[in-house]
Amino acid sequence: MYMQIERFNDGAEVLKVLAHPTRIALVNFMIEKGPVNVTTLYEAFGMPQSTISQHLSRLKSVKVVSGTRRGLEIYYEVKDKRVENILNAVVSA
């Protein structure tokens, strides 16, 4: 019996959050462009700001992305370096 299943919890949570096409696309965009604000994201994706914010919230909940305040805006960037490897495996398949 494999007793160390708990050590996979973090990775499983990241995969669950990434299991949405919009979140994969957002993460990929941030990897390519670097830190971006919500305005840049909703203009690039043609989605309402509230939708983008909800997806960012899910990504932040598992620490895939983080936000840094610059004046009145928050710039989001990918913080979990494992995610780039995951996307490369998924997108190139």
From TrEMBL:
Keyword Isomerase: no
UniProt xrefs under InterPro entries: ArsR-like_HTH (IPR011991), HTH_ArsR_DNA-bd_dom (IPR001845), Metal_resp_trans_reg (IPR051011), WH-like_DNA-bd_sf (IPR036388), WH_DNA-bd_sf (IPR036390)
Keywords: DNA-binding, Transcription, Transcription regulation
Annotated HTH arsR-type domain residues: 3-93
SMART domains on file: HTH_ARSR
CDD domains per the UniProt record, alphabetical: HTH_ARSR (cd00090)
Cross-referenced Gene3D superfamilies: Winged helix-like DNA-binding domain superfamily/Winged helix DNA-binding domain
Protein's UniProt name: ArsR/SmtB family transcription factor
Organism name: Ectobacillus funiculus
